[in-house]
Amino acid sequence: MNIHEYQAKEILKKYNISVPNGKVIYKVEDAQIAAWSIETDIAVVKAQIHAGGRGKAGGVKIANSIDEVKMHVKDILGKKLVTYQTGPEGKEVKAILIEEGCNIDKEYYLALTLDRETSKIAMIASDEGGTDIEEVAKNNPNKIFTETIDPAVGLCEFQARRLCFDIGIPTQLMGDVVKVMMNLYKCFIEKDCMLAEINPLVVTKDNKIMALDAKLNFDENSLYRNQSILRYRDLNEEDEKEIEASKYGLSYIALDGNIGCMVNGAGLAMATMDIIKLYGGEPANFLDVGGGASEEKVTNAFKIILSDDRVKGIFVNIFGGIMKCDVIARGIVNAAREVNLNVPLVVRLEGTNVELGRQIIDNSNISIVTAKTMDEGARKIVELIK
């Protein structure tokens, strides 16, 4: 689950990490009131969307007066920002953070994330703050330093101090930066984060350490024990189909293709998308109905796929272990009847009750193409939509 920058800063403040004072507004009329609350000569007007690259897209502006604050708010609010993370469709700006300017002396990058190669949390730091870390990794990999954290003992101060040396933190500020690192790690663990990023972490002209921008992403599977995080969820920033899928416990991610996929098991779902691309097709979604889905769950999954106007065909690929093929078949038939199916549908069933499942599909009097293998099914659906 993603949250906005201003929300991430609210959380960081609770962990004694300094952030600029600011105010969030949702209407142009509130810009002047927010500007009066800024105690610096310069204000920063920042679009609040769930995507990086806002500055390059025109979503971050510097204002030298209240009139400029109002002008920038009017220009940004309601605008669709297109960044490298939003895709060409962009995201509409519905909230703006107006915060105090900062007299920056030096910018750094600091983040915590899961290192999947070691199955451990890693702290990443660089003295190339304020820029896209992906570009730094590509062009200046020697500027990025990493400490792998032992889960049994957590982040150690000597590791934080070593990172400080690596990125050139001034000796007199090293203790303060170590505290920020330790507090960020505490936040990461206690809030079940997937990513905790401060970019940039700045040293000001008066030698203060401050998180000028922040991003926190959370593991949705742990929200049951972090209920306070749920209040930060902004449904306006999420795909409607993904929101609907979450109501039924479905793992659904919208993609840019035109072949809808319904599969059981994350591994099989990824393999299904791969084989569709192998035959020249483009998957429209990742959808895992799970190992023990009910007929109702399958029906709803099918409806969610068909709610995407880009879907020109559907490939159902089920291996019945715990999941029974006849349950899947009944769900497919019911959904196809309810939504008046008008796109090609290819179904590949294998496993428990497979013969009964195929019989249900054959007797449905609905135009459904069956396949015995995943390879055959992927080839057929790609051919049908072409």
TrEMBL record:
EC number: 6.2.1.5
Sites where the protein binds ATP: 46, 53-55, 99, 102, 107
Cellular component terms (Gene Ontology): cytosol; succinate-CoA ligase complex
Annotated substrate binding sites: 264, 321-323
One GO-annotated biological process of the protein: succinyl-CoA metabolic process
Keyword set, alphabetical order: ATP-binding, Ligase, Magnesium, Metal-binding, Nucleotide-binding, Tricarboxylic acid cycle
UniProt xrefs under PROSITE patterns: SUCCINYL_COA_LIG_3
Any one GO molecular-function label of the UniProt entry: magnesium ion binding
Co-factor binding details: Binds 1 Mg(2+) ion per subunit.
Cofactors, names only: Mg(2+)
SUPFAM superfamilies on file: Glutathione synthetase ATP-binding domain-like (SSF56059), Succinyl-CoA synthetase domains (SSF52210)
Residue ranges of every copy of the ATP-citrate synthase/succinyl-CoA ligase C-terminal domain listed in the record: 262-381
Catalytic activity from the UniProt record: GTP + succinate + CoA = succinyl-CoA + GDP + phosphate; succinate + ATP + CoA = succinyl-CoA + ADP + phosphate
Any one Pfam family match given in the protein's UniProt record, by short name: Ligase_CoA
Assembly and interaction partners: Heterotetramer of two alpha and two beta subunits.
Task performed by this protein: Succinyl-CoA synthetase functions in the citric acid cycle (TCA), coupling the hydrolysis of succinyl-CoA to the synthesis of either ATP or GTP and thus represents the only step of substrate-level phosphorylation in the TCA. The beta subunit provides nucleotide specificity of the enzyme and binds the substrate succinate, while the binding sites for coenzyme A and phosphate are found in the alpha subunit.
Protein family according to the UniProt entry: Belongs to the succinate/malate CoA ligase beta subunit family.
The name this protein goes by in its record: Succinate--CoA ligase [ADP-forming] subunit beta
Organism: Alkalithermobacter paradoxus
Lineage start: Bacteria, Bacillati, Bacillota, Clostridia, Peptostreptococcales
Gene: sucC
